[in-house]
């Protein structure tokens, strides 16, 4: 199989960036509010999403 078959399309790439942006915004906001525990929850959830995607 060609390497290009494993490359995400531009749309998939941008969708991934949008999800990352949403998570980053949530983390930034919770840290500004001083809610470190909630920020850690968001980071752990995002990490789980990334790990699952890497397994596929």
Brief rundown of the structure:
The protein is an all-alpha fold and 56 residues long.
Keywords:
single chain; 56 residues; mainly alpha; 2 helices; 77% helix; 0% strand
Radius of gyration: 14 Å
Shape: elongated
Reported for the largest beta sheet, the result is: none
List unreliable stretches of 5+ residues.
none
| SS content category | mainly alpha
Query: What is the distance, rounded to the nearest whole angstrom, between the alpha carbons of the first and last residues?
Result: 16 Å
Name the beta content range.
under 5%
Count every beta strand, where a strand is a DSSP E run of 2 or more residues.
0
Q: Helical residue percent?
A: over 70%
Our count of helices gives 2
Q: What number is the mean pLDDT?
A: 87
Order of secondary-structure elements: HH
List the helices and strands and how they pair.
Elements: H1 10-32, H2 36-55
Helix pairs in contact: 1-2
Report on the architecture of this protein.
The protein has 56 residues and is mainly α. Helix content is 77%, strand content 0%. It contains two helices and no strands. It has helices at 10-32, 36-55. Helix 1 runs antiparallel to helix 2. It starts with 9 loop residues before the first helix and ends with a helix. The mean pLDDT is 87.
């Amino acid at each position: 199989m060609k390497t290009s078959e494993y490359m995400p399309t531009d749309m998939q790439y941008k969708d991934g960036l949008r999800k990352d942006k949403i998570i980053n915004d949530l983390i930034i906001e919770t840290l500004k509010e001083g809610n470190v525990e909630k920020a850690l929850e968001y980071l752990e959830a995002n990490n789980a999403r990334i790990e699952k995607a890497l397994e596929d």
